[in-house]
Amino acid sequence: MDASAGVSGSSATISLSLDNKLVCVEYPAIISNVDKMMETVGGIQGVSKAYGDPSRRLELRFRPRDPFCHPVCGNRYPSTNLLLCVKKRVRKCNPEEAQIDMKILGVIGTTYKFQGMADFQYLAVHSAKDGSQTSLYDKIILRKPENNEFFEQRVPLFLPPPIFSPVGDAHHYTALNKEALRAVPIRARRPHNAIFINFDDQNIPNEPLEAAKVNWKRVCVHASDTKAEEQMKKMFESRPIWSGNAVKANLDIHPDKLKLLLPVVAYYMVTGPWRSLWVRFGYDPRKTPEAKKFQVLDFRIRCSSKHGYTSNDMPVKAKRSTFNYTLPITLNKTVPQATNVTDLAPEGPNPGRSANITKYQLKESSYVFREGTLPPHRQMFYQLCDLDVESIRNVFGRNDGQEEKCDERDGWCLSRTADDLRDIMSSMIKQIIRNKRPESSVTRPKAPESGQDDEDEEEDEDEFHPSEGSDNEMETEMLDYM
């Protein structure tokens, strides 16, 4: 069927054929030369390569012959547009009399839009002290086979950054120092209304904020929500201090609802031996020696050849990795839309699955350490009461009944108790890893050469030393409950 039509009036009917499918590129510049424009996007081959991989973005280089040109990436969007060709014919003898011809050339199902910033550029030039600049392209780019003189010539140091920015789009960002950040009304921005207490604060709260109660009542719409609230209150009655993972492992509730329920039954300790833990309202662990067993231990698996393994061959993987970095030329995963917590289905077993299957509950290993098992992550926050090893309990119980003072570093324990616990746990993990691997694959520390002492060898070790706390992880959890 012919897809063209001559129009003499104000409207026309045009037939549409879906056979001719097109791809649209919204080019972010005025085009004066089509060939040069195609060269900036890699030609037909470059566009076809990007279109053939749905997870890939279209690269545009304004200096295509410069290997150091940072590309602008075009995002891929589905579209339902038409490419319409309109021709207007005018009679020379009578300009007011015109004929318009319209034709649909095809359907545009995919559109590439360049919405990122193009100012991340790094030129291969050398700036002298007098302000003069010298191009380095002929000195560092191999354009043809060269002799040794080319590789031995003295060239100024040129190290282009591998990554210009983790994001390519412009965002509003306001930098604040710690003093200004404290003055920001954070609770006005987040609806969770948790109470945060430092170790040196004089008083502890006896009840939650009224806003926290209101927020929980607003989302407590299912019978399972009421049951979860009762269960959590019983948990804090039997044990006054819980870690976030311990709560998640003993309570099957949606994480978004948990953020609103926890501030109703407990406050959050920011510093001290109970940092990053939730404490029952009205309970002050600084005045109760029995709270010693609820103290936190920041444990990190030590990685070095001295311990028989390195970070590359350790069976416990890191939570975060640089290999998960999303390249600028790839599409970011679609971010799920935020769910209204009042619309969440009630927790509990569905008719089509077993009653023993939980939806959100963590495994026991997420907060309990036992002999013969590896931690799920390289860094773990354990409470002393969750270290289910007799030798470990004997260490932090050395001064049971003789506790005199609670300090911010060791709490009710003797000095350096945390270091002793980490040494015991590290040796246990070291033995587990050795038992799980063949003898031939065990990495043994190299014997020091003659003339070297043990101190030199230890300086070369790539050991990860534990700290007093992980600010990154704790701040992330705090932001969730503010």
UniProtKB/TrEMBL annotation:
Residues 433-482 are annotated as: Disordered. Transmembrane segments: none annotated. The keyword DNA-binding applies. GO terms for molecular function: RNA polymerase III type 1 promoter sequence-specific DNA binding; RNA polymerase III type 2 promoter sequence-specific DNA binding. Its main location: nucleus. Residues 23-123 form the Transcription factor IIIC subunit Tfc1/Sfc1 triple barrel domain. Signal peptide: none annotated. One of its GO terms (biological process) is transcription initiation at RNA polymerase III promoter. Residues 158-300 form the Transcription factor IIIC subunit 5 HTH domain. Keywords: DNA-binding, Nucleus, Transcription. Residues 451-463, 470-482 have a biased composition (Acidic residues). It comes from the Eukaryota. The keyword 4Fe-4S does not apply. GO terms for cellular component: nucleus; transcription factor TFIIIC complex. Pfam families: Tau95, Tau95_N. It is found in: Nucleus. This is Ral transcription factor IIIC subunit 5.
